[in-house]
Design a protein that fits this description.
There is one protein chain. Helices cover 41% and strands 13% of the residues. The protein has 187 residues and is an alpha/beta fold. The chain has a single domain, classed as 3-Layer(aba) Sandwich (Uracil-DNA Glycosylase, subunit E), CATH 3.40.470.10. A hairpin with a 2-residue loop joins strand 5 and strand 6. The structure holds uracil. Uracil binds next to loops. The site of uracil (URA) has 11 residues, from loops.
Length: 187
């Protein structure tokens, strides 16, 4: 299956109640052959309207971070744990994350990334449960043949200078992590 074929199924999804309030399903955006998959939390209002991930203020910060390591959106793939906007941008509920579980699993299977960057605590919880983003950010974890890299969510940096500094630092480590994965040099 290709991502295009998968997306045709995702946009028809009615597995949870978010389908009743969404304007658009936000499947993801980017390069299907990317070595890196970025996973955020859920679409916000701008993303719901545009049908694209990270187009609002968090997206601007994400673009700056990508630029710092010479990546463009077209080079990578970006999606979210939950594909439809939770009303009033509330946190996604466990049943909503579960309903979307299969879609995200299929996306990982098709893209086969070398590295999955987990943007924020909800994304981290989906793959590396029961950890704390304030402790685990910036530390790659190898698990069942995949390398996960939790970092702060770009939106968490607003008005929090130290969090922004940490996010910048963590992004700058990404090229080195990719290199280490190539050399099987990552425990
Ligand atoms: N925040 C997210 O986690 N995802 C988006 O697509 C936009 C904002």
């Amino acid at each position: 299956m290709t991502l295009e074929e998968l997306n045709k199924q995702i946009i028809k999804c009615e597995k949870c109640k978010l389908c009743k309030t969404r304007l658009n399903v936000v499947c993801g955006f980017g390069n299907e052959k990317s070595e890196i998959l970025f996973i955020g939390e859920a679409p916000g209002r701008n993303e719901d309207e545009a049908g694209l991930p990270f187009v609002g203020s968090a997206g601007k910060i994400l673009d700056e971070m990508l630029q710092s390591i010479n990546f463009k959106r077209e080079d990578i793939y970006i999606t979210n744990v939950v594909k439809c906007r939770p009303p009033k941008n509330r946190d996604p509920k466990p049943d909503e994350v579960d309903s979307c579980r299969e879609w995200l699993d299929f996306q990982v299977e098709i893209i086969k990334p070398k590295l999955i960057v987990l943007l924020g605590r909800h994304s981290m919880e989906r793959f590396l449960p029961n950890r704390k983003i304030s402790i685990d950010h910036g530390q790659p974890k190898r698990l069942e043949g995949m390398v996960y890299y939790p970092v702060y969510h770009p939106a968490a940096t607003v008005y929090r200078k130290q969090v922004l500094e940490d996010l910048k630092k963590d992004f700058l480590k990404i090229p080195d992590i990719l290199d280490k994965i190539d050399k099987a040099d990552l425990s």
